[in-house]
């Protein structure tokens, strides 16, 4: 039977050494959905993505991806199932050119976009093919990071603050990219500080506070929940 949820996270707890950071994260993502994790700095959003991806040594609870349990799997095995993680630092090779970055995706599954496909999606990158990663603008780096992820063939994307530090026009471009991916059937979990951006791309929002998910707000109910959201986010 098809999975009702692409991802189901239940009582996910995680530790950095002796520090207990996640105290029981619960949320679901339906196939084809875009959801955000919102919350203040230090709430545990990045740690949640890292724990799902198997990048935190000590984690307990359950993370089911298409009905398969991930909690005990290493990151490599999780990537092979078709989940890709784009860290806040973007994870591109700064000493390599754009073209070399596009030819070195981390794991390839059938169905990954070709070099030509991603260059059609991100025309700016085509003009920068021979440029070194360090020479790119923040926006170009983010596009390259997403392009690399699309090369892998993953259809489930974990994106950590893709709009951080980017100019408004680039933020809009990334928003259009995510809308295109959603139309193509990708499922996306996004950590966001940019609340307006989150509202423009997501179906639902989970609020993370002190290592727990404390609320869920459908995007259609954002306007009636602005007061609550401002209180959660301290904005
Ligand atoms: P931010 O937007 O600041 O990244 P966040 O909600 O993503 O916020 P996390 O990065 O998940 O928060 O951090 C949650 C907590 O874990 C914070 O208290 C942070 O100090 C702590 N933490 C993060 N990384 C480490 C680490 N490598 N070792 C120890 N503690 C860490």
UniProtKB/TrEMBL annotation:
Entry keyword Cell membrane: no
A matching Pfam family: ABC_tran
Domain ABC transporter: 7-235
GO BP annotations listed: L-amino acid transport
Record-linked SUPFAM superfamilies: P-loop containing nucleoside triphosphate hydrolases (SSF52540)
UniProt-recorded Gene Ontology molecular function terms: ATP binding; ATP hydrolysis activity; branched-chain amino acid transmembrane transporter activity
Family as reported in the entry's similarity comment: Belongs to the ABC transporter superfamily.
Protein name (Swiss-Prot/TrEMBL): ATP-binding cassette domain-containing protein
Source organism of this protein record: Devosia marina
